[in-house]
TrEMBL record:
Record protein name field: aspartate transaminase
Domain of life: Bacteria
GO biological processes: amino acid metabolic process
CDD domains linked: AAT_like
Domain Aminotransferase class I/classII large: from-to ranges: 37-383
Mitochondrion recorded as keyword: no
UniProt enzyme class: transferase
Length: 392
């Protein structure tokens, strides 16, 4: 029998062809075959969730919080998120501004469902986190990348945005940024806000790395004048508390938007397990010291990377101001990011992500995750630099 036709929406989520993750999948196949590979690919902590958080999760589950939790999120977690956001951004936030979601990825999808009708144009900054265009397609909107430039440290400018803004419905940004490690400056945020207001755009702000700031300051656009009523913010326990597998995130926004998003959650995810939410409240109660402890290895390796890269000329670095990555410009080798990454993997068993995985603006670059212990990281980066120098 012939299978019934699948929807165009589901079959075109990746836009056809490779999704740019061939190096990652090849590295995993090598590991499965028993080969030692230094994985500097995905943003996964090399330490796991703090045992005290797991004990809180276990205690909550054993205590019976295993049934359906409130779809918007437990009141205690929504309040905890609201208090954290108010303290960090200065924007008065209450539980009515918060929806708890199964991770920030779920929140990104919900935000585009909330702001875009089928066929609407949704803008996003290139380079971008790999799921952005597929998330937009899955929501029924049309993804439109807005390229930034390596020479401007990938800071988006109003002149980059203006040609694409007329008629668009939303703009997705990410600061601190994955993959570049760049934090958008106040000037950049002001320009973004100006374009959003001039063209009546919803601004969707992915802020999952807000606890990983090495230089400068993180500015949430929701805190800028006139922006709270047109901004949806994504956050997550994944990066701040090394709880990637717990799948607990949130979306912040105007009360009316959140009320509609709660309705969407009722018809899709139906909430987040209560014992995971209770563990998240416990994690927040440990204060900023725990977040700093989780972030410390990435700050240390970022400094180590800058020392190593400063001793050579073959590879240029985009100075990382935040997040758990460093972006390298390897165009002097004459290789694409993908070719460089594949050859490095085959010859030295070091896996990094080609810039092309994150958009055409990052072609000829590499994203290196700061996610293995210091000695292995330093040795791998030294090898990468020598590999590049032999090709310049």
């Amino acid at each position: 029998m012939t299978q019934a036709r699948l929807s165009s929406r589901i079959t075109h989520i990746t836009g056809g062809g490779s999704d740019g993750w061939d190096v990652f999948y090849r590295a995993r196949r090598m590991i499965d075959a028993g080969l030692p590979v230094v994985e500097l690919t995905i943003g996964e902590h090399d330490i796991r969730t703090d045992p005290a958080i797991l004990e809180a999760m276990h205690g909550s589950a054993r205590g019976g919080h295993t049934g359906y939790a409130e779809v918007p999120g437990t009141r205690s977690l929504r309040q905890a998120v609201a208090e954290r956001v108010t303290a960090r951004t200065g924007v008065p936030t209450t539980e009515a501004n918060v929806l708890i979601t199964p991770g920030a990825q779920s929140a990104l999808f919900a935000a585009h469902i909330a702001t875009c009708d089928p066929g609407d144009t949704a803008l996003f900054i290139d380079p971008y986190y790999a799921t952005y265009p597929g998330t937009i397609r899955g929501a029924g909107a049309v993804p439109q990348p807005v390229a930034t430039r390596s020479r401007n440290s990938f800071q988006p400018r109003a002149e980059d945005l203006e040609p694409f803004a007329p008629g668009a419905r939303s703009l997705l940004i990410n600061s601190p940024n994955n993959p570049t490690g760049v934090i958008y400056s106040r000037e950049t945020m002001d320009e973004i806000a100006g374009v959003a207001q001039a063209h009546d755009l919803w601004l969707i702000s992915d802020e999952v790395y807000d606890s990983q700031v090495w230089e400068g300051e993180h500015i949430s656009p929701r805190a800028l004048p006139g922006m709270a009523e047109r901004t949806l913010v994504m956050g997550s326990m994944s990066k701040s508390h090394a709880m990637t597998g717990s799948r607990c995130g949130w979306i912040l926004g105007p009360e009316e938007a959140i009320a509609h998003l709660v309705n969407l959650s009722t018809h899709t995810t139906y909430g987040v397990p209560g014992f995971i939410q209770d563990a998240s409240v416990f994690a927040f109660d440990q204060g900023a010291a725990l977040e700093a402890e989780v972030a410390a290895p990435f700050r240390r390796r970022r400094d180590l990377a800058l020392q190593i890269l400063g001793r050579q000329q073959a590879v240029k670095v985009i100075p990382p101001q935040g997040a758990m990555y460093v972006m390298l410009d390897i165009r002097a080798t004459g290789l694409s990011g993908e070719d460089f990454a594949l050859q490095l993997l085959e010859e030295h068993h070091i896996a990094v992500m080609p810039g092309e995985s994150f958009g055409q603006a990052a072609a000829g670059h590499l994203r290196v995750a700061l996610t293995v212990e210091d000695d292995r990281f330093a040795a791998a980066l030294e090898t990468l630099c020598a590999f590049a120098a032999a090709r310049v």
